[in-house]
Amino acid sequence: MMGRSINWFGLSAGIITLIVLVISFYVPWWQLTIGQNLIKVNASPVNTNFGLFGGAQFTVPLIWALNLISILTFTASGMIMLIYSLNPTKSYSKHLLGFSYKKPLYVLISFVAGLVVIIMIAGFLGMSILLMGSTTLSLPTQFMPSGISINALVSGSFQLSFYLAIVAAALCIAARLYHKNLAKIPKTAPETTASPTETTATSVSA
Amino acid sequence: MLFPSTLLTPLTNGISIDNLSAEITSADYSVSLGNISLSQPINIASGETSIINVSGVLNQNTISQFEAQNPGVNGINISLENLNADVAGVTVHMDQVNDVGQLQLPG
């Protein structure tokens, strides 16, 4: 009897992708803190918001719309990866895999690229911000009234959900690679048929 | 000498003032009168009022000279120079804050 073939990498990837989606609502991928929690930037593809004075939080409509796209992308990717993983040898499986395995990676790359671009723009404006670590940020003098300078301790750090997203993306790629092995397995395993042994009963009549 | 100031924070979170210092000058004559600083860091809880005690040292010679040159004047209009404040991890420096009040002279 043959066991049902499952792409375990895909199954893990699907589950972790959905876990990342849920966690990202509460834990940002990257957090920037200015001062002693005076201003907080909680950035993730799913939920990006800005916290002021440790309390009020707000977001920007454009970012909210982008977050919504990421939520749908993550949900679709995770669900379809799960469906694929449980049926990896079906005729339609490759299409499901092709759709789902790239999405977490694309979201991850887009997020990091977006952060790098924002930090480069900040650097171009004379504000040094680190992706990871702490530094003292000085507001550019051209934006300040004469005779006033403002410096603030700024620290940036990637959070647990970001690393979990990397794991999800890596497992998605592993699922794609492992699919090649599954594809080699014949879709219908040949049945082992025992050679029939014919027994002839001979009746002996006395 | 103490300069108590009342500060109400409307914030939903507490705020800490770790440092506050400035040089007191006469607004009219730009003469240094002394300096002020925060005695100790303070933490103001959300929605609460706090009295900030700022201790200062005045240059008595300068004030006596001012009184001698301006008889009958009850107070000196003061400005602050080199004001440094560290509020919730953000350091603000202002070269000058004009006309912050009047220093009453012991008449």
Work out the helix count of chain B: 1
Chain pair sharing the greatest interface: A-B, 17 and 17 residues
Number of contiguous helices of chain A = 5
Report the biggest beta sheet of chain A as strand number plus sense, adding barrel if it closes.
Answer: 6 strands, antiparallel
Q: What Rg of chain B is obtained from the alpha carbons, in whole angstroms?
A: 15 Å
How does the helix and strand content of chain A classify structurally? alpha+beta
Query: What fraction of the residues of chain B are assigned to beta strands by DSSP?
Result: over 45%
CATH architecture assignment name of chain B = Sandwich
For the termini of chain A, the CA-CA separation is 47 Å
The parts of chain B where pLDDT drops under 50 for at least 5 residues are: none
Shape by Cα distribution of chain B: elongated
Strand order in space, largest sheet of chain A: 4-3-2-1-6-5
Radius of gyration of chain A: 27 Å
What secondary-structure arrangement, pairings included, does this model have?
The complex is a heterodimer of chains A (206) and B (107).
Chain A: H1 8-26, E1 30-34, E2 39-43, E3 49-52, E4 57-58, H2 61-86, H3 93-100, H4 103-124, E5 133-138, E6 148-158, H5 160-184
Antiparallel strand pairs in A: 1-2, 1-6, 2-3, 3-4, 5-6
Helix pairs in contact in A: 1-2, 1-5, 2-3, 3-5, 4-5
Chain B: E1 2-8, E2 15-26, E3 32-38, E4 42-44, E5 49-58, H1 60-69, E6 75-87, E7 90-104
Antiparallel strand pairs in B: 1-5, 2-3, 2-4, 2-6, 3-5, 6-7
Describe the 3D structure:
The complex is a heterodimer of chains A (206) and B (107). Chain A has 206 residues and is an alpha+beta fold. Chain A has a single domain, classed as Butyryl-CoA Dehydrogenase, subunit A, domain 3. In chain A, strands 4-3-2-1-6-5 form a six-stranded antiparallel β-sheet. Chain A contains five helices and six strands. The C terminus of chain A is likely disordered. Chain B is built from one helix and seven strands. In chain B, strands 1, 2, 3, 4, 5, 6 and 7 form a seven-stranded antiparallel β-sheet that branches. In chain B, a hairpin with a 5-residue loop joins strand 2 and strand 3. The interface between A and B is medium-sized, with 17 and 17 residues. Strand 6 of chain A pairs antiparallel with strand 7 of chain B.
